[in-house]
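In the previous lecture we treated proteins in isolation. Real proteins rarely work alone, and many bind small molecules. This record shows how such a complex is specified: first the sequence, then the SMILES for nicotinamide-adenine-dinucleotide.
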Amino acid sequence: MCSVCSALIVVILMNIKTVGVVGAGTMGNGIAQVFAQAGFSVCLVDVAQPVLDRARAEIERSLAKFVEKNTLTADARDATLGRLQMAAGVDRLAAADYIVEAIVEDADAKRALFSGLHAIARPDVILASNTSSISITALGAASGRADRVLGMHFMNPVPLMTLVELVRGQATSDASMRTASELCAALGKGNRPSFEPAADPARAEPLYLRVADGLRAAGLAVETGRFGADMAVDLVNDGPVTFWIETRGGSLVK
Ligand SMILES: NC(=O)c1ccc[n+]([C@@H]2O[C@H](COP(=O)([O-])OP(=O)(O)OC[C@H]3O[C@@H](n4cnc5c(N)ncnc54)[C@H](O)[C@@H]3O)[C@@H](O)[C@H]2O)c1
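The predicted 3D structure, ligand included, written as tokens:
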């Protein structure tokens, strides 16, 4: 079965047809693209039209590369672009069935956005954040719907990377995690569950990032997810560090 067909089946099962993506930068563009490629209607939102114009040009450029490499037909490219809408301002997301946030990595900005989204989105809608380091529990608390807030951490470049890290906040429900996992499958991406750091994220995160930088300096093309529960515990105990790496070739190394 083709990927769009299997995605459509999942969409019907989950009743998620329209996905809102907030933030049309590097990650938001890629996230909007992969959802649209998988058959979802997408509304990509940012603060101003020029940003959205750049985002559309970037997505067109990315899709053109897939067509050049014969991994996407011209018809599929046109259909993907047909499913992609852009809007300045989040009001249009009242119609979204699922929302992914990919704005700047600023805790205050994200908390304000999640609070605003709660007023706009239907009560049943899950709000996912692509944050690399900000607490999902804190975003959940700001949102007023903590059980429907989770981390959906895509890797860069989103259209090529095959792993999504799903981060569970303290109040995230099983049902929300399941839905996010099914969405990853609909996108043709694997997922790995992760948890909020057990303790002292201020101490754990810089070390984690230094490990990643060291691997890059050694010539490895790595994309790293957030540290998971095991690693957070290991770091707190000053024990050996466990982490996952997804190579650009798509293999997963522990
Ligand atoms: N760049 C990466 O490699 C990478 C990888 C994984 C995760 N992330 C995470 O993804 C998120 C986005 O990163 P990025 O690199 O795409 O950032 P970026 O700076 O490229 O894009 C952010 C976009 O958000 C927009 N924005 C800011 N505030 C907004 C608001 N209130 N409403 C709507 N739009 C708003 C900005 O105008 C900008 O276009 C961050 O949380 C980052 O930590 C980034």
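Summary for your notes: The chain has two domains: 3-195, 201-253. Residues 22-28, 45-47, 51, 102-105, 109, 113, 130-132, 153, 156 surround nicotinamide-adenine-dinucleotide (CB under 6 Å).
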